[in-house]
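Reopening: Ankyrin repeat domain 42 still failing for me.
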Amino acid sequence: ELLFYSTFSLTSGCPEPDPCSMAVKKPNYSSVHEAVKAGDVEQLASMIRSGAGINEVDLVHKFTLLHCAAHSGSLECLHWLLWHGADTTRVTVGGWTAVHLAAIRGQDACMQALLVNGANAEAQDDRGCTPSHLAAAHGHSYTLHTLLRHGNVDGSDRKDWKPVHYAAFHGRLGCLQLLLRWGACIDDVDNNGNLPAHLAAMEGHLHCFKFLVSKMATVMHTLKARNDQGETPRDLAERFYKDNILQYIDGVEKEGQHPETPEVLAFPAHGAASKGDLLTLRRLVGSGVINMNERDDEGSTLMHKAAGQGQIQCLQWLIEMGAGCDITNDAGETPKDVAKRFAQLAAVEFLTQRTGDSNSSDEELDANNIKFFESHGVEGSTDSKADVTLGKAEKRDARMRAYHKIQELQQLLDIAYSNYRQLGGITEEEKKMKKEEREAEKAVRELEAQLEYERVRREKLESQLDECHAKINHLRASLEKQEKQYSSPAPPMVTWLQSRAAPALAASSWPPLDLLQSKYSKYWNKCASGF
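Support: Ran it again with your exact input. Result attached.
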């Protein structure tokens, strides 16, 4: 197993790393923890194979190897440790698990790997904080989003603080609006009766305070809310000399409404990036109000907004600060795709120079071509940079090793399925196929029965139609017979009566012939029948 991360070969059909990447001599580390911090998975495998413990604890920080990988963002080392059974429940001093450390550092890729491997998203440290509390406190919104998919949005610590309280207290607007989208309640109070709005006012976090005021039932409901000491947000702002909060409260009380739109209140940095307001953008990112790769309601980052409006200076600054160029929004578009959609040619050219043109070639590559592993999507974490610095060749080799692992496991899975079938086992897939076959056969039988019913019904209708045709023919024949009978010449007596009555009828219009015929019908019929 451990040899899988050794020197890559062509035995699995995958290409060897190029000589340039193999020419650099790997340093020898004094401890396995140093190898993990450097992201050297080959040295890690070698040291574990030589006898180092996979849950070995660092003497200084009491970190296990998994703690070190989560803290430094050594993603491939963390994958390797999880594959080989590293304990995810081990805690450091303070009660932090690897999940807590990934939340603190904003290592969202490491967080995803830990949670997929069964790590506890609700583990509490010595203060009762879950990873969600720590991610909200440090402003790592994407890491928090990963945790919310596995945990509770309203978990409380020992002070009855929920993640929304931590986000408000530390001024993390991105985390605050994310928590509200996930159903967090901004009316919850801590053990001192403080709303999140009290905490934001106390610390002078104006953007968070504005957002909270806009989301409460009414403006006055927020401004007049009192904690257990009877203090309103204004009282706390006065006590801690937060003039920006006081000025905002004065303006709102005079105007009675918010001057900003809801979108600006929730995503001020996105608005600044869209308008090209680099000064505001620097201030918001630098103060930690929002994250460099903060997503809005449509999944768009600051890069998407700046690219869509062709704000080159903002794009340049964001890239220098480490913003991701490969992150996609909810529509699957990268910032360069957005720039193309809005015909921002300068932005397209600028981003192409820094990201390359992935669409420049129509060549279809497979795993036997090394270029297959050079193309990539989002690499690693997006909330914050990892401490590990890897070159392009090292990242490519890591992808090659991961792909080789997929092939290796696929082969083992095929063998395991074969063994199971040979022992008489029926796989879930086969059960599903048989179930589908039975359902299909049942449907066919039902359709055949329905078809037979319709056939019999059609035959009955055809029989009834034939009977109707016969009746019609019979009635038509009877009608023709009667018409012939009434159209035959009148008997002699009738002719004599008509000739005798004709002069009288001609001299007078009354009584008419039909009236005489009806009056003397008895005699008329006898005459007509020839007596």
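The CA atoms of residues 161 and 488 lie 113 Å apart. If you still see a failure, please send the error message rather than a screenshot.
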